[in-house]
Amino acid sequence: MTTKEQQATAPGIKQDSRRTDISKTSLFINRAGAYFIVAILLVIGLIIAQGRFVSIDNIRSILNAVSLTGMACAGLAFVVYSANFNDMSLPMTMALSGMMAVQLIPFGIVVSVVGGIAAGTLVGVVNGILIGKFRANPIIWTLAFNMVLSGIVRVAWGGSQIYPDTVAGDSEFAQQAAVQFNSFARTYFFDGALPLMVVVMIVLFVFAYFMMTRTRFGNKLKMVGSNYEAARLSGVNCAKTVILAYVLCSLCAAIAGIFYTSMTKIGAYSNGEGYDFDCLTAVLLGGMTLAGGKGNIVGVFGGVLVVGMLKNIMTLIGISTFSQYLVTGVVFLIVVWINTSSERKLGRA
Amino acid sequence: MSEAVNTNENAYALEMRSVSKRFPGTLAVDQVDFAVRAGEVHALVGENGAGKSTLMKMLAGLYSDYTGEIYIDGKLCELHSPSLAKEHGVGMIFQELSLARRISIYENLLVGRLPKKNALFIDKKEAVRQASELLERVGLGKQDPTKEVSEISQCDAQLTEIAKVLGSNPSIIVMDEPTSALSSEEVKRLFAIIDSLKKQGLAIIYISHHLQEIFEVADNITVMRDGKKVGTYPVEETSTEHLIEKMVGKSVNEFYAEHTAEIGEELLTVKDFTRWGFFHHVDFTVHRGEVLAIVGLAGSGRTEIGRSLVGADPLDQGTVVLDGKEVSFKDMTQAVNGGIGYLTEDRKVAGLAITQSVTDNILVTIIDQLSKGASYYPKKHLGVVNKKIEELSIYPPEPARLVNNLSGGNQQKVLMAKWLATAVDVLVLDEPTRGVDIGAKQIIHQAVLDYAARGNGVILLSSDLPEVVGLCDRAIILREGYIVGEIQKHEINENTLLMAANGEGRHVS
Amino acid sequence: MKKVLTIVALVLVLMFAVVACTSTGTEEPAAEETAAAEEPAAEETAAAEEPAADTPAEEDATNTEGGAIDIAAVIASEKTTDNQQLMPDPIEKAFPDRPEDPSSLPEDDAGRYYDMEYVGWDAGEKDAGIPASPGDGPQGKKVISIVHGDHAWTTAYEKGMKQACEAFGMEVEVWSPNWDQALQDQLIDQAINAQPDAIALIPLSAENAVQQFRKITQAGIAAFGTNMLTTSDAMPYMAAWTGPDDWAQMRQLADTLGEAMGGEGGIAYITHDPGGSPYYARTYGPITEFAEKYPDIKTLDIQSPGFEAAEVKQVVSDWITRFGDDLNAIFLADDSAQATGAVDAVKEAGRDDIMIVAAGNSKTGQDLVKAGDLLIINYQSAEGDAGLCARTMAEWFAGEEVLPVGYLATDMITSDNVEGFYPTQW
Amino acid sequence: MEQTKRKFHASMINDYRAFVFLGIVLIFGIFANNFYTLYNFTSIFSGSSLYTFIGLAFTLCMIAGHMDLSVGYMATMGAMMVLGMRTLEGLPWGVAFLVAAGVGALFGLANGILVAKAKIHSFIVTLGMQFVIKGLLNIYSNGAEISVKGDFEVTDILNSSPIPFLPFSVLFLFTLAAVIILMVVLAKTRFGRNVYMLGGNLETAWLAGIKSDRNTILIFMISGILCGLGGALYGVSAGTATPTLGEKGIAPLMVGLTATIIGGTDIAGGKGSVLNTFVSIVAILAMFGVITTLVGKFEVQILFIGIVLAFCVLYETFTKYAKQKTLGIRPDLVQKYMQESGKTKL
User: Fold this and answer.
1) CATH number of the domain that D203 lies in?
2) From the candidates A306, A332, A342, A343, which should be mutated to test the interface with D, based on the most D CB atoms within 10 A?
3) What's the confidence (pLDDT) of residue A249?
4) CA distance C22 to chain D (A)
5) Which of B403, C95, C331, D260 has the most CB atoms at less than 10 Å from its CB?
6) What is the pLDDT of residues B377-410, one digit of tens each?
7) SS3 of B44, please?
8) pLDDT, tens digit, 9 for 90 and up, residues B276-324
9) What is the 3-state secondary structure (H, E, C) of D205-237?
10) What is the three-class DSSP state of A136?
11) Do B277 and D325 touch (CB under 8 A)?
């Protein structure tokens, strides 16, 4: 008997994993999330850049650089949060909205922007219906849809780029719209200190924050993300919730797409290429997990900041583009690993 | 019992000596002695939560932290992993099928020990031959072993599961509710197989709620209750009534306080309720203040009725009248708004979002009611949550705690709280206290009775008979998808229920 | 099941619609919507037809009675979108002696890149497998042009190629592998399989080109290199190579920039995709030129953030933070997205003193030059690139002597002459 | 009769749709000039080599219930390593190929350990690993391409067709060998069957005593080796490799993934066939060929591959959606009910 009991408590034997006490360090890491890395980067930045790092110019430049990724991330967070992995159609959503907006410039700036956003949002509606209602595999479906859209956009515009001022033609009204369109990405407030793109990104994050925490949609989404079946059997309209998540995702992507187009002054099918994985990286760095229902928007913003600061610091140190890929990859894997293990220790995974 | 063992003759194939297994909050198995001889079919009976399954899982090596001693063929064994248990000749047939559905039968049968032709390759011919042999032993000689499991019937899958266990040449076979998905003819086939196994000298442990079957197949019967062993009885010396008495014990009368319900007007009327292949032409009525139990064995269509009623599953025909209005729910959102709630049987898979907080889980059903327009912030409604936490004594009383960090009983309370928070008139409770300790059970039962007493209707779907007896005001008996009888309050006791569900005794219609 | 069938039907309809769109859209990319609306039923036959089989509708004034084309007249008549000559005269280049061991020279010595800059001029004998010119002129000859990938530049190139070939009465098909090396290899196989009279190729990779041109020549088809420089190993397998003289153009830009900088200061580079010939020409071209002529101009940093405006903007902003006033000029490998990003970053930081020079010739670049944001870009006609290639092929078909390596003229666009290059090609 | 017919249709779409797809493409090939020539088929088969290796690796992981997004970069790594070892380091070809496969195995090992031991989702692990490999590759070659430097001996051997009148180049024969070996491994060895069991029902596998961690790591390693070898063969046959090999055009990863889905491999794991993946890749390449000849436009290729993939996803989604409604039905009750009610159809 006694030997048995000793063995039962001997190390290496599995104990019941449901803990009632919570590890303080795990909780700290979990709560602090991406901001822990932000703090580390801040210290590194202060040391290596001797004061230039915290200058207004540099902070603005970091924020400005991540603003497009940030806008798309604010939307993508909803999809990741709903346990649907990733929206692989993000690049084409951005390209489509930009190209539609440019195409509609002859009808005035309002029609152009609204039309562009509407076109992008439509992508989200289709994705949402197929994934939310019919439960298509999110990765494969959005990937397939991205290819189809890519084909359609290329065929429809004959594979060429379109320029706002060329599309506008000779009409004074349209030319003015084109100028306005191109100025979106070049509008600054407070004497050049605050770019419009950063403002829009922050507005989208605040909007996403409220959507996720202060509305019934956000709270339903949390339940849908954590346990779809349980949410369904609790009377949550899962299909509607997931559709809305995708719509918000493509809405944000569409806005990012319009700014992207305005920034390059070119509407092209290749706009937004690579944003699918780049944004997912930022969202995951921000503490969201593919299992859904975990993490929050504040964390995602932190993840976006990490991406921006990392690049900024690496360029400041003078690390080559090639080594930057490596560092980004390693940092990403380490952060995700820490995040996963702390989640497991907290009994959330 | 163990003192009586003579190790030379009459040796036990299996002997468990004062084994215990503790889960957080409960002692699932408490100092149990259990012994089986070779060539014996030993039935293990008891209520839900009596500890039968835990005892057997211990034997199958699923727990590494049990206490006590297990002897197999007289030798002390440490069954700390499934592969160790297998090595010692324990074969376990689980209640839920453990076959990989999209993989062929023969591979499922021989998983982990496919025969090899040489150092590299498996010998498919030999594997198929061995698989056919195994299938032959369970009477599936005509089945093609290269088919996928998903292509064969539920019954054949169940028999395949048995064949799979036979393949590892066990000396002890544990069957946990093997007949729940079988029709009566198929059950006969299974019994013939058990008989032949017995003759081959295997020790068979048979767990079932179907007492009728047990009398047909078993040699000895061990009864468990509340994690303790009540006693072992040779089959000739006992009877259904006797067993039920032993299973139920005296605690029932102490445990369930007598309650008298005020039955009001008709609340829910269901007519000609049919989902082909699940349940057919089901009619029943629930009144205000009434707890109606739908009693049936596993696979009788009990759960499916509940799910179809709230629109979680489709329905082929039938009308539902709720509070005088005819309703038909396409999904659970409509059902909850229309006034019916459904508490699911599997809290982890379909009941709770265990990675979220107690608050989120309790409020999920009433988000729409609490929100002003689109705006909704759960922290504003902590009052509602705290009230429910207090009402159901959820411990620890922290609304922000993750459900995963609660004990099973408290998780179940959260599940209950989430439905009690709603304003639905009718609540369908599917196994509301499965796998829950006594304390939590009592609290949940009281909550159910209080809920009904407020003029609501409850439909109780439970295989826990004392629970049914203690709670319900009327019971309808379901067998093979058809209603076969109805028992009024004054007639309800476990005896009548068990008999009715097993197809014995008087049918009231 | 019904739903599935509906989907199938929808997909099929879509597929046919697409075939209809694209088969009619080959000639006029912009008009495919109307074309699809006009003839929705004709999709299959249209698809099966050779897209280029339609004879050019425009009347060719240079067509003489006997059917033979007056090549010189055609060359003189055709114009590009920006009103330059479509088929300019190829330019020869003088080349110095090859250093002993180029790879032993330092990074900023022009000799180190000798094999790239003067590729083809000393490549030795042409491979014996190159077929002899038919000598009967370009008419009715079938040509397949394989480009590197989809891009607005390519669209302009394609337009130029088609315009020029039609003028010569040659049939042309333009195929694109969308920047995919594996796919380009496959297209070459397919092109060989189609047995045209000549194949014009923009190789995706300078090294891989050897294998590609070798294959074409071994199949007995005349191979013409265009636009992208290859390694000299590939030159023997080409009937001729035409394209821009990237190195000379970059040196020209660098000279002008060096002068504008007053011969001193710090410069940073945003490169083309690493590895390709534009990468070396547009990074080490200026670096070696500065080293030789303006040794006081220091290279501060070299980064390859790709062709995304946002990324470039970030890198340039970071540079401005890092180098401060030491940064006087930026050299870009691309004048569209890269230029937009760099100009935005400079403007945002209020550093109008930073001079930006870009390689390329896009509308964006020209607009920026016009607005005074870019100092100079180089004139590099996409249509002219294609035109020169077509001209060389036509001359080769006619049995005329062609230059083994023919460069486009080098020109620069500054705010002084930018007006003359509108409307832009892409 | 009715039922067998329906079963036939279902199995055509479920199990043999890769072949059906290939058939459709071949029919369309009639309209394309010079499609049915020996040369064209040699080129289609040779062109399928890289995609096939990547597709095999991807399918293998998917059968086991994982996703390996790093296959594209691991193949690039293989191509760069073999040429780097040969041209820059001057090692013999055999050693160079071994190094390429070994490096692939190393990254597979890293993936496998992170997935099996650190319990991070394979999607995330391989996503991060992509950046790591991309960085290392660029650092190794300084972003430049590496070529055989005029040493075309092995290149020519790979591209030659040793068997007269058959469109099989040596490169393709190697590819075919890899397909067959993997088919045999998956079908005939315990490891192979364990792969299916791991993807089909992890718990069953555990209960049966299959060492899931060790097998998972091995799966990722094999995936790495396949990619390394596939990349190496491609690199040598093309005579050059660039670090951007895995990301241009319709990236090889996407082709491999698409072919895996078209080939009918279950996204959740447990079901799939490398042969079907291989057939899908050949069909996709043949389709590219037909489209190039008929339309000559890349955009139509991407549109069509998207439509085919979308069609497969939609088909699977809708059948699953319909099946959900009868999940758990008891046939004996149906029969009984039909007898009683006199109905013949549900």
Assistant:
1) 1.10.3470
2) A332
3) 96
4) 7
5) D260
6) 888 899 999 999 999 988 888 898 888 888 778 8
7) strand
8) 888 889 999 999 999 999 988 767 888 889 999 999 888 888 999 998 8
9) HHHCCCCHHHHHHHHHHHHHHHHHHHHHHHHHH
10) coil
11) no
Whole-number average pLDDT of chain B: 83
Residues in chain D: 346
Would residue A16 count as lying in a domain? no
- Nearest Cβ partner of A322 from D135, D257, D302? D135
Identify the H or E element spanning A253.
Answer: helix A238-264
Does residue C143 fall inside a structural domain? yes
Which pair of tokens denotes residue A160? Answer: 């060429």
For C:193-232, CB contacts with D below 8 A are 193-195, 204-208, 210-211, 214, 231
Place of tokens 């050897």: C210
With CB atoms and an 8 Å threshold, state whether A236 touches B396: no
Q: Is the distance from CB of B261 to CB of B458 less than 8 angstroms?
A: no
C-alpha span between B224 and A212 (Å, rounded): 49
> 3-class DSSP state for residue B66?
coil
Check whether the bond before C203 is cis (ω within 30° of 0): no
What is the domain range of residue A174? Answer: 31-341
Residue D102, amino acid: G
Same domain, C223 and C278: no
Question: What is residue A347's predicted lDDT score, i.e. its pLDDT?
Answer: 62
Indicate the pairing of strand B172-176 with strand B90-93: parallel
Count: domains in chain C:
3
Q: For position C205, which CATH number holds?
A: 3.40.50.2300
Name residue, tokens 């999920």: B364
Assigned token pair, A254: 């569409």
Q: How many CB atoms lie within 10 A of CB B7?
A: 10
Q: What angle in degrees, to the nearest 10, is found between the helix axes of A56-81 and C309-323?
A: 150
Q: Please tell me whether residues C72 and C118 are part of one structural domain.
A: no
> Measured between CB atoms, does C277 come within 8 Å of chain A?
no
Could you tell me the residue range of the domain that residue D177 belongs to? 2-341
Provide DSSP, A137-174.
-HHHHHHHHHHHHHHHHHHHTTT--B-HHHHHTT-HHH
* Structural contact between residues A272 and A69, judged by C-beta atoms closer than 8 angstroms: no
Q: In angstroms, rounded to a whole number, what is the distance separating the alpha carbons of residues B446 and B256?
A: 9
Residues of chain A short of pLDDT 50, as ranges, are 1-20, 349
Asked if B364's CB is within 8 angstroms of A220's CB, the reply is: yes
For residues C156 and C226, state if they share a domain.
Answer: yes
Find the CATH number of the domain harbouring A266: 1.10.3470
Count: domains in chain A: 1
| The two structure tokens encoding residue B247 | 């299973």
Q: Who contacts B162 (Cβ-Cβ below 8 Å, separation ≥6)?
A: B93, B138, B173, B175, B178, B190, B193
Give bridge partners of residue A193 from the DSSP assignment: none
- Domain's final residue, options C26, C42, C77: C77
Quick check: A322 and D138 CB within 8 A? yes
Contacts of A69 in chain C (CB under 8 A): 310
| Maximum distance among all Cα pairs of chain A, rounded to whole angstroms | 95
Q: Is A142 on the interface with C (CB under 8 A)?
A: no
Q: Does residue C190 have a pLDDT over 70?
A: yes
First to last CA, chain D: 17
Smallest Cβ–Cβ distance between A293 and the set B312, B355, B405 belongs to B355
Query: What is the rounded distance in angstroms from the CA atom of residue C311 to the CA atom of residue C345?
Result: 11
Q: Is A318 in Cβ contact with C301 (below 8 Å)?
A: yes
Q: How far apart are CA B113 and CA D117, in angstroms?
A: 25
Cα angle B312, B313, B314 (rounded to 5 degrees) comes to 130
Query: Looking at the domain assignment, is residue D346 inside a domain?
Result: no
* 3-state DSSP assignment of residue C290: helix
Query: C344 to chain A nearest CA, in Å?
Result: 7
pTM for the model: 0.86
* Residue B92: strand pairing partners: B174
- The pLDDT assigned to B108 comes to 86
